[in-house]
Specification:
Number of domains: 3
Shape: elongated
Distance between the termini: 31 Å
Number of helices: 10
Number of strands: 12
């Protein structure tokens, strides 16, 4: 550098950036040349139709899920990727370095390969907007911990009718993980932020028009249905007549909970109705409290001819088992349910069209830093 400075008649004490700037000296040091070569190799490898490209994309998608990013990690804001370091992931480190040097990736074709479909604020945007008083490291901790439990959408923390938040135990059951000890502090903080945000219910409102438009009930009514709530796998009762499982079903879009009393060979099971109290009682952990019903309108006199208890028949296919239920201490004929109960119908299988990979284009702010050509001979601009 001293020789170059002497040739251009500059003092040796002047800063090297004067010569390295693309608009002045247009020189490159070894570091910038290495950065340009690494980013170029990453770009060419991503656009190649090879197994190497698939492996790079899988490693990038793994980091995308770890950082709880719902869109393409290559096109995310550099403020997200640059501060977050990852070990043993060369593809992400190169993409992070490209973001640090103000490179921008753009797909040449529309592709939904990297996106996670959501209809509500994602976890990252919600945390940064709802909790400005928290430090950045605490926000990133909540975001990453939520990603480990597959929580990418904020509506996943509400139940199917948006009436209450789910518990940590229910989240662990959904991920088939064992919950031990007390509820984690970051999860308590996250639930408090959700409970302090009433506008989330606006994403769950749907309007339903009645068939009879002349009556008052024929007016449009709004229901709260959370389409992105955690959907537990439903398990039908077994055919073993000795097992008396607790099950739930629906009647007139209302949740009905009961215990199987008798299993008939015709496919209809006799179940005893267990009801929640008027106030929809829940314990400190948010689980549902049910009590044995003495008698109500659901009682079928053809099944129960006596005056005590409430029994009725239901088809075997309409019932779903309750996995986690326990007795309440010091309260007879009372149970607590810790499962996520819902009455949504399972959606039909959707046809997923074959994905056509799209090339990734990169815009370079400093054209003297990197010049690249894609495999299909299309120059990068």
């Amino acid at each position: 550098m001293k020789v170059v400075k002497h040739k251009v008649r500059l003092p040796t004490s002047c800063h090297d950036n004067i010569l390295l700037h693309s608009a002045q000296g247009k020189l490159k040091n070894l570091w910038r040349n290495q950065i340009a070569a690494q980013i170029t190799e990453l770009l060419v490898a991503l656009n190649a139709q090879t197994k190497q490209a698939d492996m790079l994309k899988m490693r990038l998608k793994k980091v995308q899920l770890t950082l709880n990013i719902t869109s393409c990690i290559l096109m995310i804001n550099p403020d997200v990727t640059v501060p977050n370091k990852m070990l043993n992931n060369h593809a992400y480190n190169m993409a992070r370095k490209a973001h640090d040097y103000l490179f921008k990736f753009h797909p040449l074709t529309e592709s939904e390969e990297w996106n996670i479909p959501i209809i509500s604020p994602n976890m990252r945007d919600f945390i940064y907007k709802q909790a400005p008083e928290l430090q950045k490291k605490d926000k990133e901790l909540i975001i990453r911990k939520a990603a480990t439990l597959s929580i990418h959408r904020i509506l996943q923390l509400l139940n199917y009718d948006a009436s209450n938040t789910v518990t940590c135990q229910q989240i662990c059951d959904f991920n088939r993980r064992q919950a031990r000890g007390r509820t984690l502090k970051w999860f308590v903080t996250l639930l408090s932020l959700v409970q302090q945000s009433p506008q989330l219910k606006d994403f769950c409102k749907i309007s339903v028009e009645s068939v009879n438009s002349e009556s008052k009930s024929g007016m449009d009514r709004e229901f709260l249905i959370n389409l992105q709530a955690i959907k537990m796998t439903k398990k039908v009762p077994s055919t073993d007549g000795r097992k008396k499982e607790f099950v739930y079903t629906q009647q007139d879009h209302t949740l009905v909970i009961g215990q199987i009393n008798k299993k008939n060979q015709s496919g209809k099971h006799t179940m005893q109705y267990w009801t929640t109290n008027v106030d929809d009682q829940r314990d400190d952990n948010g689980v549902i409290i049910i009590q044995r019903c003495s008698s109500c309108a659901l009682n079928d006199k053809r099944v129960n001819k006596g005056s005590h208890g409430c029994y009725f028949n239901r088809n075997h296919s309409d019932l779903a088992c309750i996995n986690r239920i326990s007795s309440c201490k010091n309260i007879p004929n009372t149970k607590s349910i810790k499962d996520v109960l819902e009455i949504r119908n399972c959606p039909e299988k959707q046809y997923i069209p074959e994905w056509i990979p799209g090339l990734i284009q990169i815009h370079d702010y400093d054209t003297a830093l990197i010049q690249n050509t894609l495999l299909n001979k299309e120059a990068v601009i």
